[in-house]
């Protein structure tokens, strides 16, 4: 019996993820990442794909670039796009990455001096079923440092909303406090971060590409005025007002 088209697609996607996973760099690769105050970092980006309620085919692909450290908007790009790849849990990147990559490429072509030095992705990086979420996918294909910041806990690799997890969240006293998300294998896949004094709900930070987890967490905290890092929050606020 031959595999169904859907099974063929899944196998193709899994092997593509495995191939690209080999290229992820989980270390700091840029000079600014090694500086205590991120000296040399001037532009931080945020990307997201937002859907219209009840429509899972048409979406708005958005990119913003903010100045660092004052987090003022330098550049915005939003385009309505039509998604062609099916939604399959764990393979979100195959639906979304092409459009986010296009936004970065448009910026690189039209205003290269505004290209972000790091991109925050509204989603996960290594904290993923096969350690290759949207932030990793976009990072490897764009060549830019990327950080995954998710608002909700992906229950994966043995990490779940257990009583222990809830008590660890309760123990986060102030903005910048975090605890590791440890998979069943013992590997640290990301960190839960209390991103602001004002918000007791954490965000879930994981490495996308070309950055270490500790630096990703520190940078996320540095870019938060509220719960969600400003490059992503600007998009979410903009989407809400459209």
UniProtKB/TrEMBL annotation:
Predominant place of localization: cytoplasm
Keywords, in A-Z order: Cytoplasm, DNA-binding, Endonuclease, Hydrolase, Magnesium, Metal-binding, Nuclease, Nucleus, RNA-binding
Compartment(s): Cytoplasm, Stress granule; Nucleus, Nucleolus
Any one GO BP annotation for this protein: DNA repair
Cofactor needs: Mg(2+)
Keyword Cytoplasm: yes
Pfam families for this protein: Endonuclease_5
GO terms, molecular function: DNA binding; metal ion binding; RNA endonuclease activity producing 5'-phosphomonoesters, hydrolytic mechanism; single-stranded RNA binding
InterPro entries cross-referenced by the UniProt entry: Endonuclease-V
CDD domains tied to this protein: Endonuclease_V
Gene Ontology cellular-component annotations: cytoplasmic stress granule; nucleolus
Quaternary structure and interacting proteins, as annotated: Monomer. Interacts with PABPC1; the interaction is RNA-dependent and stimulates ENDOV activity.
Function in brief: Endoribonuclease that specifically cleaves inosine-containing RNAs: cleaves RNA at the second phosphodiester bond 3' to inosine. Active against both single-stranded and double-stranded RNAs. Has strong preference for single-stranded RNAs (ssRNAs) toward double-stranded RNAs (dsRNAs). Cleaves mRNAs and tRNAs containing inosine. Also able to cleave structure-specific dsRNA substrates containing the specific sites 5'-IIUI-3' and 5'-UIUU-3'.
Family, as annotated: Belongs to the endonuclease V family.
Name the UniProt record assigns to this protein: Endonuclease V
Organism: Astatotilapia calliptera (Eastern happy)
């Amino acid at each position: 019996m031959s595999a169904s088209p859907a099974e063929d697609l899944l196998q193709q996607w899994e092997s593509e993820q495995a191939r690209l996973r080999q290229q992820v760099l989980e270390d700091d690769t840029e000079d600014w990442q090694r500086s205590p105050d991120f000296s040399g970092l001037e532009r931080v980006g945020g990307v997201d794909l937002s859907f219209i309620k009840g429509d899972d085919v048409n979406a708005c692909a958005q990119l913003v670039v903010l100045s660092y450290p004052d987090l003022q908007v330098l550049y915005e790009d939003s385009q309505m796009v039509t998604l062609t790849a099916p939604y399959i849990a764990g393979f979100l990147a195959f639906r979304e990455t092409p459009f986010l990559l296009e936004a970065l490429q448009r910026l690189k072509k039209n205003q290269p001096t505004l290209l972000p030095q790091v991109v925050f992705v509204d989603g996960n990086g290594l904290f993923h079923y096969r350690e290759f979420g949207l932030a990793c996918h976009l990072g490897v294909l764009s060549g830019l440092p990327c950080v995954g910041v998710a608002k909700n806990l992906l229950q994966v690799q043995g990490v779940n909303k257990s009583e222990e997890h809830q008590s660890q969240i309760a123990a986060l006293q102030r903005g910048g406090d975090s605890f590791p998300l440890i998979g069943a294998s013992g590997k640290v896949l990301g960190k839960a971060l209390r991103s602001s004094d004002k918000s007791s709900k954490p965000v879930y930070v994981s490495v996308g590409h070309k950055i270490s987890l500790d630096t990703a967490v520190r940078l996320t905290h540095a870019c938060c005025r509220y719960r969600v890092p400003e490059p992503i929050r600007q998009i979410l606020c903009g989407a809400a007002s459209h």
